[in-house]
Each structure stands twice: as structure tokens, then as C-alpha cells.
């Protein structure tokens, strides 16, 4: 082998073919950080054939109530108003407002071939239950938003760890050379970021290139995409040509520095991104029928429709991981229905029901659903007992939440695990967040125990020291 | 023994009574109260004082206190408590020393307050919420073996001398001999020395993070003296920018940020002092051992030094979830302790101590026991904000000067008072009272007789006011009656004065400091009593402030509503107020008039004035609210003095009169004014809030306080698998056994805190151990820092894992050189600057970057240093270089940072908010400040290129550079070479120049075609922007 073909050079030269060699391992150690690394977002092959190539995660921010959405509990209605014996009042956030058991304010009906019971607040999503694999026994480790958000995103209820999207792009790189590999969208209605802010899509100790690109809800969605105003395309092109010329002269004097060549290439990529990124976000190019399908004409959900459409367009163009947060920061401005659970959940269901249903249908029609994994999950569930107030709500519940997956290698119309008869705690086939993550990685073709990064003397994983793939929901 | 046996029988009998008795009705409440006591005090007491012998390491006398069952069961000698009856319980008797054996054994008696709490707890039924410890949660002591200590990084530094080399010409200092010896082993020859401009650019960016200016390059290139480079190095090391450059490296390791992180990510507005400490310490070349020790225990080691307190910001720089539920309190605190110990481990000792939190470290000899003993060092250490005088030296000097001047002014006044004032007084005293009274506008009625109908008391004050005391009745009516008053009275004034003794300093007696004068009435009667008293009609009321202009206005005090409305002053509390009521007609009675003033306080309960003062005036309307005033008693005295002649006054009378005269003496007044002005200008210590980390101080407030977060727990426990719900015994402070040598234990470094200390001095002991080169961790401490220096100068550490010197880390490429450098550091008194100089003066450092295929075949990663590996600048240095080259850099040092990307200060002064990291910094691999980072990646991604192409800041810098170049074109000739020199530190090669000139011409033409007037300038800006985007601009050879 040519002596110049050191580790860095290899990484760079192998380009798209690098995946075959499992080359992401070259990056997986902070001891190599001193050495420059050529484009770390180069696409790489997974450990084994992947069922899903991309993920769109609808983050049900604030914590949806399982018993009012997907986890039908007739027993809860029967015991409506009764005290819950032995209940630990410190389970939720407001220990002094614990009420009695409270039945769901919503009607449930059966849908699809699988006969899934679904709350009336999801009339459109209910039509797609045969595409979904429900997990009812998911549970987490914190009763507090930001630690629980970190748990759901990063696998630990603490700050400082890479999130799922970062791990996935670290493992697989990006299929698109012109677009960010990992994109996050937050509430565009001025209700704020999810609690814990950008840490939810941070790369933790992984190189920061793996962090999520947050599309700014207002103003320019991505930094530095627009050419300086006084310049024409041709003028900037001339500028880049000169830069490339001069850089090549420099490279000729420094033949050993592979990253210099990579950097010349990065300007070409950047040049293409200038047009590729706005094009990917240009939902106005969609047909009227598609716009209508997503509900862009509906005031109550247009913002989320746009985000779901952007998600599809990004995935179509090679983006690996998209996360859309439903709702913003403070109580009641998200699914965090401490008071008036009926009003709160009705409102947020209206914002998401049609757009997400449309996303499933659209992906399906385009043949994309088979390798795009759609995730519906938040940071925790809510309690079967009421949080007292004029209009009762529900407090946080780390012991049980419901989530569903659809597409990319997931069985449709199945339900995994169960809560107790009132939906308080995960009881049957309990699924830890680590298991949930292990399953996501599995669907993307990665073994969660092998996706590691050496940091502070330890090989870290998304799944910490746990994680078991939920086999029954995988095709 | 006999007595204790006897007691045992008593106890059993008592217990059986309880067993048979019905459960008392208040049982549930008692148990709840008992549980609260257990959690707050009893658990800690039992764990700390009893558990070791009774359930922990031993179960003496068969008594195991771990669980309530064990407690109730008792020991070999029977039961020890009678639930509900503390006085009959043997446990109580033994801790009160009423019976033997007295407990705790061989230790002082427990404090009475604690004993009382334990007794109360027994009375409540001695409930436990959970066992005192989890069985198996306390790890057994683990011996560190000799083999463990043999690992290279735990060994003491080897005494090494530079090896012999064949090529004796190349080495410039000892470093080179170590490097060359290894190269020669592999038959590798080092590269030639770099060209001067290249070398200069390299050392500038390395040492100060800014490129040299064309003038500096020219000066160096033309300096033919043999020590030309050494002079440059000395200059750079003395530059304040050196500290800014190298502090940034340290801040990565220290996971420094200025917000809490997590949910709200609240700012830590005073955290920047830690950053300033690092810069200052590095600039002052503070010995590294001191630098470390102060960060760990500056508050204990140098409590009087503000810099030492700023240094402690290190421990508290980690993240903290300020929104917590009760269930998270304890685990959050353990996370915080983990962060302190873990960061200290990786940053300073190169050890991944945090790996031993759940189990013994898998690779390094750090038992889980060592981990918990180490973190317990920080048990009571908390983040705090304290006020410090950051300029104490300046302040002291200013005080000396101020004192000197004050003494001079004092003397001047005393001299005047002694030499001139008495004579001036005598002249003045001869004037008539009428003459004198003309000097005043208000006569304070301090001789009036005051009465409260509700029993409040009045104490006369020197200024003629009356301070209210005694009971504070709900409602009150006062009656003031004056003596005979002369002249045509035109108005009366009621003052309500502030006073320290009143709530909110008054001026009212209400809880909030308010009052309400419900009704105010004045009656007049001839002094001779010849006619009955008549009401005086009051008009045109005015006040300094009125609570509103309705029912609480001054007018409402005379509105004929005697019960509800009246003058009040909310929210102007703690201030003097006055209300003036004019007499409808001047009041003048031959022989004088006696006034009766009636004041009612009915509007609100306890709303009387707290310190009233009343006065009358003869000034024609409208009388002023303020104005010179004099006490009626003084005039009485004056009159007496006139009658008795001045010289026959008693001393007291004379003093009283002088007190009245002096304020009227212009010369005396001027002198006093001067003194007062000086008094007011007393230099105040400029107190600055500083975020520090200490013990026994007020915790930094945050959100979780609302729920009662305690900030710390007095004790730390061994935990099973890191779970705060599975506690073992109390862990006491100690350090890593593998780094305690010569049979030493933690006791060798520990000492009792000095008298009056508010900290435990556990951290001082830790710091002592860390820097101890004889028996402690000092040698490792030195190895880790010299490796970091090497890493930043050469691009790769001698140990490639700068924060992991353990078994999982890389082995050193040049172990002898590493030990040599570490020994040099210690020998030089731990000063870093001589070490920097040693490194950059070496031939190894000064090689060129030329790539050589044959050499690379032998050493592809250049671990043996046969050439200079080009280094990509870090985010900060890239941005700072763009600012510097364009002439936009603002060199202001220190102080609060900013989030404004448009800021022109160096990047180290960005405010580091964890949820809003500056995008430009992140783009070029600045780490997220969550855990310490010893090395940054140097990625190449398209968004970085977008920044150089389109960012408004880069574009603005290019334009500014272009403008400067155009302006100086006459001086420097053509602009292109000058742009090269400014941005890249060299002249362009021929082909480069040709391409550049052609580009500029083409862009000019293009802009002209587009009709842009400033075509030339835009074209040149385009070119400058190209220079910023060149690889050469950010990859330093």
C-alpha cells in the first residue's frame, strides 16, 4: 500500500465505497481526533442489510397520555373517580394535585383489519393502524421533562450524550452529499423549543458534525445558504474557481495532506447545497392534491403539514434522520396536559392527525414507506389518575407510554406489550427505552452493541449497558 | 452489667404492654412525623455513628440496626428500644450515657439536640423508610497490588538524560536529542528547518492564536541576530494574547460553560470569572501545581485572594438540572459529585475515574471504593455566588490616600473651630432673637406637649421629632399642644420621618411602612386664655408625595371625613415625607397664640405615623414645604442667653447654642461641606459577584429550590451500581490508592480545618495529594500537562490520548522524553512558559512540513516527528484570524461574554450558553461543553465552506480588508501581494499572482457590467474572501 495512504487518506479516497470496509470504525475513537478526518458524513454500509434507510420521528413532545390515545382501557372507565390505592404521589410532577382515577374523555372505536382500538381524536391516523406496530409497554427513567427527553433521545437521562440521530449518522453517514444528514424541526408557531433545547439533537461527545441541523422555524432555515447580495452566481462561481485553483497549487506543494483535497471538494459540495437545500424545502413545488392531502389548506394543522412534507422531501433526497417536534416548551403549549387533558390533546391531535396520516399514505404511494421508518413517540406517558383542577389534566408518568412505528421493516397491525388494566404501569413484555433504541438501530441495519465510540476510557453506546431488539414487531 | 440486665427486663415488660395495647388513634400521624425525623436527622445519625459496628462492618452484640426489624429485635442482651417510649429504651439510655456501655463507643457523646431528635423518633414509633444500607452496597476494601503500581503512568518519573545521537549538529536542545534518537533508530532523518515566514506564522498562531502582521514578518525576516527567534518567542509568551490562546485549550478540558444546561438552561452570569482566572493565571505563568490546587481548593488554600476563589469555578462548571422532582434530588447530587471528580480526573490526572462509579474500573486499578471515597471529598462543596473585591490592591492604596486627606481636612476644621469659631459665635450671639429667627422659615414645635389617647408613647429626638413607641393601637388620636407662639402664623407642617426602628424604615407604623393621617385639625386660643379655643380653617394642603389624588391624598386629611380617607404614601417607604396646611388667614394674637393639633389615624389598622414632627411658619403664602428650620427650644434657650448674657451660659447651653450658630456660619459650613464631600468620596471596595465553588456558603439559587432541593447532603455513601437508592456505608474522603506511595494514606495530606474555617478542608487535602511529587499524584499531574503542551505544539501528544493515561489509553511514543519534560517542569517550579519555550525552540518544532513518501512509508502518522504535520486551526483561531487580518479585532480582555456573533472580540469571550452554542464555533468542531474534551476533531464538511462563501461576518471582513488595502495601495504598491502578506504571511508565487490579478480584473469587469459603482472594491473584496477560504489560511504548516 502506498505510504501516503494512511488512515486519513484511506477514509477519504475510498469515498462512497468505504462502507464496504466498515470504515466508520476509523472514526470511532477520540484518540484519532487529533488527526484530521475527511468528510465524516460519507455514506457507509450498515452491519447487515437494513430494512430502513431513513427515519422520520414525530416527537410527541410533552408526553402524550397513552390511555387517551392508543392504549384503550375500559377498566379505567369502570373505576372512574375511585382513589388509586397505594399510589406514590411523587410519581408525577405535582405531588399535591393527585386526584382519583379518571376515564378518558374520548370515545374509542376499533379500526382496520387488526381491529385496533383508537381514540376519536385521531380519525385520520386510525385509518392506518394496519401499517403500525404499537408498543404499549414502553417505560422510562425520569418523571421530569428534560431528563426524560434526553433519555428518549440519547438513552440516558443526563446531559452530554449523543442522540439517536447523531448515532445513526455517525454509523451510516449521509446518503445525500448536498443536504444535511440529520434534520430537526421544532414548533414554528412561536411556542418554543422542546425542554432541554438543542441538547436533544446534540452530538454529545461525538464529533459535532453529527449533531442535528435545526431548521430555524423563522427566518433563514439554514445558516449561510444565501450568496452575498451583491454577487451573481457567475461571480461566486469565478471566486470558487480561483479558490480551487489556488488550493490545488497549494495541494501540489503538500502532496501528503489528503484533507486538503477533501476540503477543495467541500466547497463544491457547499456550492451545490446552496441550491439543493432550498429546493428540498420548497414544498410549493408539490401538487395541489398532495398539499391538500397533508392539510396545508387547514389552518389548525398547516404548520405541521408543511413540516411533514419537508420531511418526506428530505428523505426522498437522501437525508437520513428527521425529527419533528409537535408542540413547544411550556406546560399546555405541548402535549403536556397538566390541566384540561381533553382540550389539550384534542388540540395537538388536530395539529398532527391529518399531516402524519398523509405522510404515511404519501410515503406508501411513492413506495418509500418500505424503507422509511416512521416513529411516533414522546418522552413519557401520563397518569391514569387526574391532576386536580377546574378542568382536570394528567400528570407525568414514567412507568408507561405508548409509541408506534410504521414502515421500514416493521410489521403492521400488531401491538406489543401491555400496561396494567388501568394503564398505569407497563406490565407485559416491558420495553425499556434502550430496547426501543436497539430496535431502531436494528431496523437501520446496525447492531446496537457494535455501534460504539471510545470516550473517556469507555466504549459508549446509544443503549448504554442494556438494549434488546423487540423482535416480534420486526418483519 | 447488673444494672443493664435489670433494665433489659424492664424494657421487655414495657414492650409487651405496647404490643397488647390497641393501636393509638394518632398512630398514622405519629409514624409520618417519625418518618420525617428519620429522613431529616436520625438516618444520618444512625448511619454515621452506629452502623459501622451494628450492621455495617460488624454486628456487635448481635445488634443490627440496618433495618427496623433488626432494631426492634434487639441484640444478644435483648431489645434496645421500646417503641413509643424513648425514656424506657436502652438505646436512649446508652446514648445519654445514663447506662453502660455508653454509646457511641469510644467517641464523644452525641449533641443533645440530636439525642432529643432520636428520642422523639422513638416516641413516634421509630419508623424507617428503607434500610440504612443495602446489603452488599459497601464494597470491600481492595488492595492495590505492586503489579498495579507498575503500570507506566503510575510509576514515579524516571531520571533520564538525553540519549546520544549520531547527528550532533541537528539538535538545538535536549528535546531534539530524544526525538532524533528515535528517528535514527528507524533510519529516518528529520526535515529541514522551515522558512522564516512559515515559522513565524506557525509560532504566532501556536502561542497567541493570531497571525503576525506584515510588519512583524518583515522585522523578523530582517533580524539577522542569532537569537532573533528566541526574542520573538519571548515577546509572544509575554503577550496577553498568550493567555487567551492557551486558556481556550484548558476550557475544553474543564467543560467550561456559563449556563446550567437541561430544561431551562439558566445563565450563570458570573461564571466568566473562571475563564478570566485561567487567562490571568497563564499570563502570569502561575506555577501549574498552584493552578491546579486553586481550582480544586482555592477557597481553602488562599481564602483572601480573589483569584483563588475565581479558580474554584472549575468544580462548578458542569451541567446541573435546575428543574428537579423530589425523586431526582439525590441522584442529581451524585451526578454532580461525579462530574466534579470525573472532570478533575480526566483534566488533571488523565484518568477516567468516572468509570468506577458502578463497579471497579475495568482496566485501571481504581476500585469502586476509591471512587466513592474520592467523590465524598466534595460532599459539602456547592456552587455559590460570592461578592469579592477584585482590585484589593488598588483599593488599599486608595484608602491610604483618602485617609491622609481626611486627616488633613479634620485638622483644618478643628483648627478653625478652636481658633476662630468662639469669637465668631460671640459676635453672633449678641444679635437679637428676632434678628435670628428671620434666618429661619420653620419653627419646629419641639416643646409642644404630645399625648396619645390610645396609649402610644413619644420619645423626643434631638431633631425635634417624636419617635413612637409602646403599643401600636389599631387606631390612634394624638393631641399636641404648643406654648405661646408669636407673630403672624401662616401655615402648619406635619412631617412623617423615616426611622431605622420602624418596619421598612417607616415612616408609618404599618407593616409595610405606610401610615394614613385620617383627619387633621388645628385649634387656636389666645395665650392668656382670654377666649375659648376656635378651630383654624386649613387650606391649600400640599405634600411631598401622595399615594393617590383621591381618598389617600393630603386633601383627604381635611375633607371632613373623620373615619376613612387620609394622606398616605405607599410605596415611597423609608423616606421622609411632609404635608403642609396653610391657614386660611394669618393667625396673629396679641400676647401669642396657643395651638392644639389633633391627628386621627383611623383609615387602616395600625397606620399611625412613626416619627412625626410638627412646625409652623410665618412665611407669606405659599410657604415652602422645605426650608431652613429651627427648634423652638433653641429660641427659648437664646432668649435665656440674652437675658443672662452670653458669658454666663453653662457649657451645655453654650454647646446647644453653638450647634445652632454653626450651620449659619458660612466659613464653618464651607469647611464642613468639604469634609462631607470627601467623606462621600470614600473609596468603596468595588464588589463583584463571582461564581465560586465552596462550602458553608449560600448556594447559587435555582429553580429546584422551590421544591426544597437541599443542594448537598452532609454525607456521601457507597452506592450499589451507582444507584442512590441502594446505599452502603458512609464513604469518607480519600484519594486513589494507586497514587499513594510509600505506605501513605489519605491521613498524610489531611488536617483539621483551621479555627473559624467554613469549609472542611477535604479539598485542600485532595489538592495537596494531587500535587505531591513525593508520595502523591504529582508525577502523573506533571506528565499529563506537559503532554497537553506537546499535543498543541506538535499536533499530537506523546501520549495520543491526552485525557486517558490509563490502560485503555495509548502508550507514550517517547516515554523518556515525556518523563524528561515532566521533570523539567517540576524543576522549573512548575512554570509552563519555560517549557513552551523549550518546545518551540527545538529543531523538532521548527522543521518544515514537507511530505516525503519514503519517510512516510516508515512512519505514516509522523509519530516520530520527522516533519511538521500541518494543523488545522481551531474554530476560535480561525475566527480571530479573520478579525485580526481584516483589522476588525477588538482586543478588549476579560469581563462578561456575549452571544452576539457580530462581536469583534476574541472568540474566547463568547458567552457559552449550553443551549445556544455559537454556530460558527460548532461548525469548526468546538466541543459541546458537557464533559471535558482533551482533543478536538478537525472535520471537513460542506457547511464550513458555506461559512467562508456566504457568512455576513466573513464577507464584512473581506470588504474591510479590501478597503484597507485600497487605501494603502499607494504605500505598498499593488494590492494583491499586500493581501497575501496580510492574510497568509507570505508573498504570492508568480503563478498565484497571475491568477489572482486576472481574477480581480475579471470581477471588476463583471461588476462594472452589472453597473456597480464600487466595482473595484467589490472585486478586491471577492479576492480577499478567496484568501480566507484557502486551505493555507486555516491549515498551518
Describe the 3D structure.
The complex is a heterodimer of chains A (475) and B (1037). By secondary structure, chain A is of the alpha/beta class. Chain A has helices at residues 7-14, 74-78, 145-154, 164-172, 233-253, 258-281, 288-294, 302-316, 341-365, 433-443; strands spanning 54-60, 98-101, 108-111, 116-119, 132-139, 182-185, 213-215, 321-326, 372-378, 381-382, 385-387, 396-397, 401-407, 414-416, 418-419, 426-428, 431-432, 452-455, 458-461. Chain B is an alpha+beta fold. Among the domains of chain B are: 2-123, no CATH class; 246-390 and 689-763, no CATH class; 442-627, Jelly Rolls (Sandwich); 940-1036, no CATH class. Chain B contains 37 helices and 19 strands. The longest helix of chain B has 28 residues, at 392-419. The radius of gyration of chain B is 41 Å and the shape is globular. Classes of the chains: A alpha/beta (475), B alpha+beta (1037). At the A-B interface, helix 3, helix 5 and helix 6 of A face helix 15, helix 28, helix 30, helix 31 and helix 35 of B.
Rounded Rg of chain B: 41 Å
Strand order of the largest sheet of chain B: 10-11-7-13-2-14
Number of domains of chain A: 1
The percent range for strand residues of chain B is: 5-15%
What percentage of residues of chain A falls in helices of 4 or more residues?
25-40%
Total DSSP E strands of chain A: 19
Q: pLDDT below 50 for ≥5 consecutive residues: which ranges of chain A?
A: 1-37
Oligomer: heterodimer
Category from helices, strands and their pairing of chain B: alpha+beta
Helical content band of chain B: 40-55%
Which blocks of ≥5 consecutive residues of chain B have pLDDT under 50?
1-21
General form of chain B? globular
